[in-house]
User: What shape does this take?
Amino acid sequence: MNKDIKIFVILVVFLFLLSILGTYEATKVIIKPASDFNPPYAKVTNAWVENGKIIVQIQIIKNGYNISLTGGYVEIQNTGQKENITSHYTASVFNVSFPLLYNITTSQLSVEGLLEGKLASNPIYITFSGIVSVSIINEIELLNFTYQNNVLHLYIKVFSPLNMTLRYIEDLSIVNYNLSRFVATTSFIPLNISLSPGIHFLNLSFNLTNFHSNIYYSSFQKYTYYVKAYVGTTIYYNVPQNDTFEIYCMKSFG
Assistant: This one.
């Protein structure tokens, strides 16, 4: 083997050994990410109606980090409702309230938002989105009734999570159970009863001779009777909405 070939072989071997050494040293300074790293995040956990507002509950999963909120926003999609977060929160759960609009009668709300805060004096931003169920139920139920000497007594249950006004009763009819004989009918009875959110039980009495009525019998006999009517209301969403409820009840007397 001549001198030039020997030099070439030596250089190749030297470079090969040098590359192995460099690779070994490089592995000593590579920082591998921790496999159990869990960044903080947020999620929508609940929603309900209270005092004419929708309350959306947000939970921050801190995963051991000391985070304090300084701002951000929460938004209900497809309603145009967006509330800024102005208070400083250190708790992991907080609530954001929205005005209750009439078009929010769906069983599900799509919520998204952005949270701004501090993590070890450094700014942090957390985005989140989620779908949460909420029920908005308004209910009027006729529980009982009596009729004697042209006076009709109605016992009514009203439930709403909002302020409500009972405006009138219309198309009221009292008939026997098989609808073959009318006792009395009344076209319109004004009410104007304002109710706060919650459950209310009302005893209402009306002398049907004081209204535009067709009276065939002044009192019940021993029989089964049926009362049916419609109650007109105003429900105070963020924009008040008029609505009508059908009420009915059957009862035996004897």
The two ends are 130 Å apart (CA to CA). Residues 171 and 187 are 5 Å apart (CA to CA).
